[in-house]
Specification:
heterodimer, A: 527 residues, alpha/beta, six-stranded mixed beta sheet, four-stranded antiparallel beta sheet, 15 helices, B: 353 residues, mainly alpha, 1% strand
């Protein structure tokens, strides 16, 4: 088995790496789309990347207090391993991953643990979540870290372990623990590693900047990830509206097996499903994962974090955040420590130039509104946007005229107008039949709707309702099972009791019978 | 605190009012040409249609207790009335326009629940109702007499024509389709019927007897191309409708030229161009998907050709569109896009594809 495996380029010296691109494409596709596959649907939201794209990443001044939530990833929150009053160094473990899908949290700077309690979360609800408050000592002193001279000499399994120890999660926004994805991919045999440099969200330029400024580290990170999962090819997909990033990455990837591909600019190109479709023509089966079709997708910023963790032993304690929107005075990109209050980012960008109609964490297409500027930057925070009313362009909803603009915009092939009409009629099953569960909530349909119908809101509401129904059904089932078990147990005890009584009765009767027989025998003998 | 708004936090600068406004703009050249061609009575008719639609819609919305402003401002009622007006004989009496418009917006649209809810194209439903109920008024055509020419009725005359149903002297004419139908019933072959009656160039420019704004095939085509360029409509339904009429015309004309007219005759006469670019592209009553629109458009074209060729009425577009409107839900039921990660039947794709 081992001998029959093909030579994997990333486990060898880099000069021997062959550049391979899967050629399972029809002649027509190649001619029509310059070697790439077509993305179905999609929209062209107004760019607005020019606000921040030409500004170098600047390091945010050290905040006095940092608020580090224990859950900055999909899965279970991490468990604190420090106590209030304890002194910690930058990069020291604050909370350890807990359970199968979880990620560790580290101190973003050196200082003292000031509190361990609830603090408002960077989430539309603003509800408090378990958070460690760290008071900075101003020294920003790193803990002793292990620097690896040749990370490519490490056993591949070690990469995932070190990534897990560094608390790295997907920085594209989904915040799935990166190490878990590496392990899952390794076990299911990944051929193609796709690095997502799409950054299709309007306004956001954090990935653009990191690719321009730190391309060499990103390419090393990509090669380390490829080695960790034993991938055969590594493709970096970058939208062609970022020519500088494409050039920088191409230069850095020279002589390696990492291939940088310029993709057409189209929202939602940065979505996992869409970038796979465009680069390989493959589709993830419904309900499946990229690994099912031999693909692993990581964000380019994640590759940088992986490189930092493997070569320098540095855990993930900061990230690049785009501060933008017409209401911001000077849009820019900053490297912000995890836990920095968003207010400090807005102040760093010069505060507001005009009144902000809405504050958004992430991009305008899929980001979440927030109202409390005290909430912290977390690992998944790609942008802090202050938008004016005219930028949002939202108006009162009018009736659906069935113009099917949403149908043309949907990258998944759904019929948003039909789903919405079913949901309005409280027909959830009908909406599911039209593909509600396949909706990726990218917002393309809402963006283009001339009637301004909040379609994504409908779908998320319906998905929430479905989940609640499912939970209720499971709970009901569990209750029913418990009740069944109880009545069965009672019946069994009754049955056993009855059987025991019957046994005792039989034994008594047998005894009596024996005594009688003995008496009768004695009587006859006596007679 | 403000209610939390949902993503996306950006929206394309579009609205229903803008969509309807663009369609009205696309209709303007052909309409202005119709005004010039048929003079003041045509303008009167158009104005009566629009006023009646606005009044009718206001009445119906008030009756339902809904807010008036958004309904009147979305422009859909005006578009319906406009489409109806340009499909009427230009010298028709005022009450034809008023009745038609009221029927279109009240019975054709508001009774179904308002914008987006109606099954039939309101303008076509009104036109069919008028044609069945008032066949004489609906088929009395006039020869073009452009504004300023010797035959053009003056302004006072136009008021008498429109509002007092003054009979026309010496101006009555048959539309091309009507003329051919009549000649057929008299046993005259197509080649003779068309002599002196059909000049393809006239048909292209629209200088012939016909409805108010549907004779100028070229201007309507330009309006349609403008809508396609502005992404208000797609090419699918229009092209399919033109093909639906042209393909059978081509085949039958090749087999028997004296009984069946050729494709250019069908494409450039009656309301086919208007139907293709402004009626079958009505979002509310046409299918959702590109494939569905191809089927729908082709069906409309084919039905138009069948009705024109063998039916009792010379014109077929309005009937064809209404017949196909009844099929729209069926098309939507069976023609759906394939969902990402699933096959056509909805089952998940196999892994390792």
């Amino acid at each position: 088995m081992l001998n029959s495996r093909p030579v994997r380029p990333f486990s060898l010296n880099q000069s021997k790496e062959p550049a391979v691109l899967a050629q399972r494409r029809s002649w027509f596709d190649r001619v029509a789309t310059n070697g790439l596959f077509k993305l179905r649907g999609g929209v062209h939201p107004e760019g607005r990347k020019d606000l921040s794209a030409e500004r170098d990443i600047r390091v945010l001044p050290l905040p006095k207090k940092l608020f580090v939530p224990l859950q900055q990833h999909i899965g279970a929150p991490a468990t604190p391993v420090v106590k209030v009053g304890e002194r910690v160094l930058k990069g020291q473990l604050l909370a350890a991953a807990q359970g199968a899908v979880s990620s560790s949290v580290h101190a973003p700077t050196s200082g003292v643990i000031a509190a361990l309690g609830d603090f408002p979360a960077p989430h539309p609800s603003g509800l408090p979540v378990p958070t460690i408050t760290l008071e900075s000592d101003g020294a920003d002193k790193w803990i002793a870290t292990e620097t690896v001279a040749d990370p490519f000499a490490l056993p591949p399994e070690d990469i995932a372990a070190r990534v897990a120890a560094a608390g790295i999660v997907g920085l594209g926004g989904a915040t799935f623990p990166a190490a878990l994805k590496l392990n899952l991919s390794r076990s299911s045999g990944v051929q193609t590693l796709i690095m997502n440099g799409g950054e299709c969200e309007p306004y956001l330029t954090c990935d653009d900047r990191i690719m321009r400024e730190r391309a060499a580290q990103i390419v090393e990170g990509i090669r380390l990830i490829a080695m960790a999962v034993d991938a055969q090819e590594a493709l970096v997909g970058i939208e062609d509206n970022k020519p500088e990033a494409v050039a920088a990455m191409r230069a850095a990837a020279q002589g390696t097996a990492v291939k940088v591909v310029a993709m057409p600019s189209m929202y939602p190109m940065g979505s996992e499903k869409q970038i796979i479709q465009v680069l390989t023509g493959k589709e993830i089966p419904a309900g499946g994962r990229p690994a099912d079709i031999g693909v692993l997708v990581h964000n380019v910023a994640t590759a940088f974090a992986v490189q930092q963790a493997i070569r320098h032993g540095r855990p993930l304690v900061s990230r690049i955040v785009t501060i933008s929107g017409a209401a911001i005075r000077t849009a820019c990109n900053v490297e912000a420590l995890v836990g920095t209050p968003v207010q400090e980012l807005i102040e760093f960008a010069g505060g507001y130039a005009q009144p902000a109609a809405r504050l958004v964490l992430g991009g305008p297409m899929m980001g979440q509104q927030f109202t409390n500027t005290g909430v912290p930057v977390v690992k998944g925070t790609s942008g802090v946007l202050a938008l004016t009313a005219s930028e949002i362009g939202q108006a009162e909803a009018s009736p659906c005229i069935r113009c099917s603009t949403c149908v043309r915009a949907c990258p998944v092939g759904l019929l948003p107008l039909e789903m919405a009409s079913r949901i309005r009629a409280s027909d959830l099953a009908g909406a599911v039949a039209f593909g509600l569960k396949d909706c990726i909530a990218c917002g393309s349909c809402s963006y283009v709707c001339p009637a301004h119908i909040p379609l994504v809101h409908y779908f998320n509401y319906a998905k929430g309702d479905l989940a609640a129904q499912e939970r209720a059904r499971l709970k009901q089932e569990a209750t029913r099972k418990l009740a069944d078990a109880r009545s069965e147990r009672i019946a069994r005890i009754e049955r056993e009791r009855a059987e025991a009584a019957a046994r005792r009765k039989a034994a008594r009767e047998a005894k009596e019978r024996a005594a009688k027989e003995a008496a009768a025998k004695a009587a006859t003998e006596a007679a | 605190m403000n209610p939390i708004a949902h993503s996306p936090h950006a929206h394309a600068p579009v609205s229903i009012g803008k969509v309807m406004g663009t369609v009205l703009l696309a209709l303007t050249p052909a309409t202005l040409f119709g005004f010039w061609l048929y003079g003041w009575p045509a303008i009167n008719l158009w104005a009566v249609s629009l006023l009646a639609a606005i009044a009718g819609e206001a009445f119906a919305v008030r009756l339902q207790g809904r807010a008036l402003r958004p309904v009147l401002l979305d422009g859909s009622g005006i578009l319906t009335a406009w489409l109806l007006a340009i499909s009427l004989p230009p010298f028709a009496p005022w009450w034809i326009a008023a009745l038609g418009s009221l029927f279109a917006v009240v019975i054709g649209k508001q009774v179904f629940g308002g914008l987006g809810q109606n099954v039939f194209n309101p303008a076509m439903a009104a036109r069919v109702m008028l044609l069945i109920s008032f066949p004489l008024e609906m088929t009395t055509w006039v020869a073009p007499a452009p504004l300023g020419s010797a035959h053009a009725p003056g302004w006072l005359d136009s008021l008498r024509i429109t509002f007092m149903s003054q009979p026309l002297d010496g101006m009555a004419s048959a539309s091309l389709l009507g003329h051919v139908k009549t000649e057929f019933t008299r046993g005259v072959g197509l080649d003779q019927a068309l002599v002196g009656y059909y000049a393809p160039l006239d048909a292209l420019w629209g200088s012939r007897a016909g409805s108010l704004g549907e004779t100028a095939a070229l201007l309507i085509l330009l309006g349609g191309l403008f809508l396609i360029a502005r992404r208000i409509i797609t090419w699918h339904a229009p092209v399919a409708m033109l093909l639906g009429a042209a393909v059978p015309a081509l085949v039958f004309n090749a087999v028997d030229g004296s009984h069946y007219a050729g494709p250019m005759y069908h494409l450039l006469s009656g309301g086919l161009m208007l139907g293709a670019f402004f009626i079958v592209t009505d979002p509310v009553t046409s299918p959702n998907t590109a494939t569905g629109q191809l089927i729908f458009g082709f069906g409309c074209g084919l039905m138009t050709w069948i009705i024109r060729t063998w039916g009792g009425y010379p014109e077929g577009v309005a009937f064809a569109v209404m017949i196909m409107n009844t099929v729209t839900p069926l098309i939507d039921q069976y023609v759906k896009p394939r969902i990402y990660g699933r096959d056509r039947k909805g089952a998940a794709l196999a892994a390792k594809g």
